[in-house]
Amino acid sequence: MHPAGRHGPGNRHAVPGGDTPPCDNGPHGSPVRRDHAGTRRLAGALGRSATRQRNGRSPPDGGGVARGALALLLLLPATAQAQWQRIDPAELPPPYATRSTSNASRVVAPPAGALPQVPAGFTASLWASGLSTPRVIRRAPNGDIFLAESGGGKVLVFPARDGAPAAPPPDTFAADLTLPFGIAFWPPADPRFVYVAETGRVLRYPYRAGDRRARGPAETVLSRLPEGGHWTRDLAVAADGSRLFVAIGSETNVAQHMGPAPRGGLAAWETARGIGAAWGDEAGRAAVLQFAPDGGGFRPFATGLRNCSGLAVQPGTGAVWCVTNERDGLGDDLPPDYATSLRERGFYGWPWFYIGAHPDPRLAGRRPELAERTLVPDVLLPAHGAPLGIAFYDGTSGPAAFPPEFRGDAFVALHGSWNRSHPSGYKVIRLQFRDGRATGAFQDFVTGFTTAAGRVWARPAGVAVARDGALLVSEDANGTLWRIAPKLAE
């Protein structure tokens, strides 16, 4: 890894899709076993693979700019503010209104002089490069930036440097990990542990503010999490520190290998697993689960979430927010992906329903009693855009603080589609909040990651707000981090 300004982008490989294959396919369609050894093979492939899959038995993600009935991304010129958009859950098209399309992205090295496009008054600079599948970014309470380098099996730490347009050299906090993704600090205000989620377990390392290397060996907090399929495991800590949350995505696209009924009967299954929980290969999946800091009390928090790839706790309200990759195969504009606050014991539809009481035709007539219990998410996003990370803007001071109207809004990284004739995603969007509540509106904020020929040179994966107020964006197509700041801060 090199700080920006010393070397150009280093890792010029395509990387896993928003949620990697929920079947047994690894890079290039090669089989991957559902055991720890197989997961390690998949982990190694993440840093090398030239193509990846986002879903079950489907091809790699596509790249480009969204078009279509639900994603009319009508932008003003790149230097102006993008229009606010909203998708109405009451106006979704019927299933198969368009043909399900495989539209694979083609990742290329950044063109000479390429920069992300940002609104007027902001500037984008290359912050770090040469990374191996950089995904989740988290700011420690002291301002240091922690990064999950999923392809390299590491967690890196960048020392806090307020106002610096390029990153200082990082330290390796932890290494030899299997697909590290989620990072959390506990207790929230003055942490004594850093929690790291691998694909099959949650670890914690002893920590004191300013540590850039783990001061002791890892302790396993949760083990034997489901592996294979959607591999990302994000983490969040409740505002009061009483519990943590881990997101576990589904094994498949729409529970196609589930079987007729769970052992012991449906009532007992849902009592233990949560409302609408699928069974078979999907047991313990498609959910956000909660646990005590020591790993006790592990149980469902919210269910029916096909692949909640990113978690965040909203400042002020303490609400747990989730960005979800919805299912594929129903057409260009179905179903919308979404960002939502989570209701404890809430059910969000998968695999039976989507966006409220819309039934999935592939499971028609099954579990009709769940229709009225399926919650509608707070913010619907263009279908198949693959949201991976979410961060609330909490910068109030510092040399790179955004204007006051940004405070309380959220940013979401859209990794990019494969199942759309006109690809969507490949950008960072802003979600609008008023008085702590989402309005349902979103707008493009960081774009320009595709070429005129439809190639892709960056795939946003993670977002975080630095101590100085700048927005940091990870992208895993070419292994870089970008810094977005007001021009006056430069």
From the structure above, extract its key features.
490 residues, mainly beta, disordered N terminus, 5-stranded antiparallel β-sheet, 4% helix, 5-stranded mixed β-sheet, Neuraminidase
Structure in words:
Residues 116-330, 374-484 form the Pyrroloquinoline quinone-dependent pyranose dehydrogenase beta-propeller domain. InterPro entries: 6-blade_b-propeller_TolB-like, Beta-prop_PDH, Quinoprot_gluc/sorb_DH_b-prop. It comes from Rhodovastum atsumiense. The protein is mainly beta. It has one domain (2-489): Neuraminidase. Helix content is 4%, strand content 28%. The chain is built from two helices and 28 strands. The protein has helices spanning 36-46, 266-273; strands spanning 2-3, 122-129, 134-139, 145-149, 154-158, 171-174, 183-186, 193-197, 202-206, 219-222, 235-237, 244-248, 287-291, 299-303, 308-313, 320-324, 337-341, 346-347, 353-354, 358-359, 379-381, 387-392, 410-414, 427-434, 437-446, 460-465, 471-475, 480-486. A five-stranded antiparallel sheet has the order 1-2-28-27-26, with no helix packed on it. Strands 11-12-13-14-18 form a five-stranded mixed sheet, with no helix packed on it. A hairpin with a 6-residue loop joins strand 11 (235-237) and strand 12 (244-248). The longest helix is centred in the first third of the chain and has 11 residues, at 36-46. The radius of gyration is 20 Å and the shape is globular. 55% of the residues are buried. The model is unreliable at 1-45 and 47-79 (pLDDT under 50).
